[in-house]
Automatic annotation (TrEMBL):
GO terms, biological process: gluconeogenesis; glycolytic process
Top-level taxonomic group: Archaea
Known catalytic reactions: alpha-D-glucose 6-phosphate = beta-D-fructose 6-phosphate
Species assigned in the record: Methanorbis rubei
Gene Ontology CC entries for this record: cytoplasm
InterPro entries referenced in this protein's UniProt entry, alphabetically: G6P_isomerase_prok, RmlC-like_jellyroll, RmlC_Cupin_sf
Record's protein name: glucose-6-phosphate isomerase
Top EC group: isomerase
Entry keywords, A to Z: Gluconeogenesis, Glycolysis, Isomerase
Keyword presence, Isomerase: yes
Length: 243
């Protein structure tokens, strides 16, 4: 049985599980595996102490861990289903931040208006900010488990419908062909590569884990009020490098 103790010392609830049946519509080709086959596991609303839990609730935040085992299904690497975030009261979509705890990830981000796609490759210890207005899918292209944490606002519910209707994100990552554009989006959307960078403006510096922010003086207000951090978000977008 797989142990999460290396990545989490607190209590773990039973995970939510995405199966082949849940994901069949978003793969390039419907997987031929048993529909009940689990693809990834989501441990939501984690905390190590009651004090941490109170802090997270007070700041309208949630800390989660997701485990994505390696795998290839009809030629495509295992991935998450993908979703967008709705707008906050100020009219700007909620962001999210991830940290890779183990393995290697491709974070595929796409603007909701289908004008831009960002590819962020991330190793263990890297943090990745999902900026407002971008949907996102996480891909495990490696041979080991991808384990990642995230901090996100509790003031919204993720929106899966659009990516589901488009039968996946704008690109699929295939074992043989590499990146393959999803034809339902029309002409291929320009893809850019952006490398993970520290985000000191929100407390994410070198050598500091995502959970280190819980209970600290950093409130991660950017998760709920991104309109107050446009200088950070603008710098993040400017770091794009054409693929």
């Amino acid at each position: 049985m797989y142990s999460m103790k290396k990545y989490w010392s607190g209590a773990l609830p039973e995970p939510g599980v995405r199966t082949v049946a849940d994901m069949a519509n978003v793969f390039a080709r419907p997987p031929s595996a048993d529909p009940a086959t689990p693809l990834y596991y989501m441990y939501r609303d984690l905390y190590k102490t009651h004090g941490d839990h109170t802090w997270l609730e007070r700041h309208h935040l949630r800390y989660d861990i997701t485990r994505i085992p390696p795998g290839v299904y009809n030629g495509e690497y295992t991935k998450t289903k993908g979703h967008y975030h709705p707008e906050n009261p100020a009219g700007l979509p909620y962001p999210e931040v991830y940290e890779v705890l183990c393995g290697f990830a491709y974070y595929l981000l796409q603007r909701r208006d289908h004008t831009d796609v960002l590819l962020v490759p991330a190793h263990a210890g890297d943090t990745v900010l999902i900026p407002p207005g971008y949907g996102h899918v996480t891909i495990n292209p490696g041979r080991e488990d991808l384990v990642m944490a995230n901090l996100v606002s509790t003031d919204f519910v993720s929106e899966y419908g659009e990516i589901d209707e488009m039968c996946g994100a704008a690109y699929y990552y295939m074992k043989k062909e590499g990146w393959v554009a999803n034809p339902r989006y029309g002409d291929p959307i320009p893809m850019h590569v952006m490398l993970p960078e520290p985000i000191p403006e929100v407390g994410l510096g070198e050598g500091r884990s995502l959970y280190d922010l819980v209970g600290s003086g950093d409130t991660l207000n950017i998760m709920n009020r991104p309109e107050e951090y446009m200088n950070v978000l603008g710098k993040y977008s400017a770091a794009k490098k054409r693929m």
